[in-house]
């Protein structure tokens, strides 16, 4: 039988209706709902990944990210992938085999950092506190003195616990120890006060699907001058092709721009619009909106007799962990919110599984009316 005479196996042909997804209100740990303008931007035409008009979009994304992060870092781009791809880019580029990396582990994403740093050959050391607490500057100082790391890695906004890690004083400490400061800002960028340059962060990365109100799939990352010096003077090659900063740099800033991979341009249109919304609103106003919305939610929780898990001083506005009252089935409540009210909230992760709900009020969803809808539904379900 020649290749042209093989019969078509028609039993494999599927007939399905058009896709019909429910209009969820996404108040979990992310993704959050995209802003309608972001979706509108995504229907712009496809162009080539080296088309001058797309190169302009990339440049604009970099410029808007510099504003959102408050940095002058030239190397400020978005990787084609989710937040974890930017986390991977951070560790792959600045960690060499044998480098000592000190990771602050007070939640699930600190653990992921330990895993990633280890995969790049780091001698990983951990600082640990109970999930729901932050590290004090003094504890970090002691850790630095004991371990003498080349990289200190912390999660600014731990989505698994709702803790905001204070970063003041770390820039000086890291410079004293000739150590790079690497910070996960996935759940803080665009929603929680964050100043990459003023706080001396050498590497920061984020995601698109949280406070930036875009779909997941592109992930911002910025490398400061000290990080770039380390990258350019490595003894060993970067053990990751896709997230290699030198190759990505030629696509984002080379002259001429060099093909690296086929960027998912529609996701870049989305990120650009999400970031344009940040710039239009203004960072200070946006941070204040997230804070005010979270406070309205916390006040409503109190009226329902519910308690946030994290003390107010280190509580994130973008993600609140709420203690599950004695005798209440946490999963059953989440399930009813989803099936009866179309509202997604998240359950606890890791050490907090079954003990808390996680409620995200991020980006487009950080609004009073969203809080009101959630509180009413919670009151009815409980
Ligand atoms: C703090 C933090 N870091 C990293 C990630 C990983 O991002 P992604 O799931 O987009 O890969 C997340 C995702 O929720 C996160 O919350």
Automatic annotation (TrEMBL):
One of its GO terms (molecular function) is alanine-glyoxylate transaminase activity. Its cofactor is pyridoxal 5'-phosphate. Residues 46-349 form the Aminotransferase class V domain. The keyword Transmembrane does not apply. InterPro entries: Aminotrans_V_dom, Aminotrans_V_PyrdxlP_BS, PyrdxlP-dep_Trfase, PyrdxlP-dep_Trfase_major, PyrdxlP-dep_Trfase_small, SP_NH2Trfase/AEP_transaminase. The modification N6-(pyridoxal phosphate)lysine is found at residue 210. Its EC number is 2.-.-.-. GO terms for biological process: glycine biosynthetic process, by transamination of glyoxylate. Pfam families: Aminotran_5. PROSITE patterns: AA_TRANSFER_CLASS_5. Keywords: Aminotransferase, Pyridoxal phosphate, Transferase. Belongs to the class-V pyridoxal-phosphate-dependent aminotransferase family. This is Purine catabolism protein PucG. It comes from Candidatus Promineifilum breve. The lineage of its organism: Bacteria, Bacillati, Chloroflexota, Ardenticatenia, Candidatus Promineifilales.
